[in-house]
Amino acid sequence: MAQYFEVHPQHPQARLLKQAADILHKGGVVALPTDSSYALVCHLDDKDAVAALRRIRGVDERHHLTLLCRDLSELANYARVDNRQFRLLKLGTPGPYTYILEATKEVPRRVSHPSRRTVGLRVPEHTVAQALLEILGQPLLGTTLIMPGEELALNDANEIRERLQKQVQAVIDSGACPLEPTTVIDLSSGDAVVVRQGRGDLARVGLAALA
Q1: Alpha-carbon distance 190 to 5, whole Å?
Q2: What is the CB neighbour count within 10 angstroms for residue 8?
Q3: Domain map of the chain by residue range?
Q4: Does the predicted model carry a pTM greater than 0.85?
Q5: 39 — phi, psi (to 5°)?
Q6: Domain topology for 3-210
Q7: Alpha carbon of 140 to those of 61, 80, 130, 136, 206: distances in Å?
Q8: Each residue of 149-171: pLDDT tens digit?
């Protein structure tokens, strides 16, 4: 049975988020609200938790998982970023943008793309997500909470608890999230390629002409 944490959207209770962080440290999968939609998240270094996350989501190792980072400096520890890429990252950070970049050796090989050695990274602009990342002290590995065979992300905590109570270890409820996933921008080849247009406005990062 998944634990259920009701937290304030602007002033999340640290004691509740510490309990959620303990669940993550012990290998649990958590449903977490973000600035785009709910995400499934787990500890980066836990092989079994990563496998469980992929199984719930119904994706294989070729699907890019995303590292949720606290800020750009933390992101740069896990991705190779040149000056041009950094300028583009800065325009959309924090925010509902996921960037695909070349992974550094800090990223376990099992969570990066098997043939490209790339990984998705983003800095969420969500008070609860940021507070959990701060307590955890390291990035979370995540993926949009879209169930197999469905097109829309789940955004209601009660529905998530009902549907996934035997598959996740915790659900964090701070109110409904937007239904749009992040905008995904692939920077791994040097040029910016828009993989998915989502909630993030391309004009904000100077890419409207590429859409």
Answers
A1: 41
A2: 12
A3: 3-210
A4: yes
A5: -130, 150
A6: DHBP synthase (3.90.870)
A7: 17, 18, 11, 8, 28
A8: 998 888 899 999 999 999 999 99
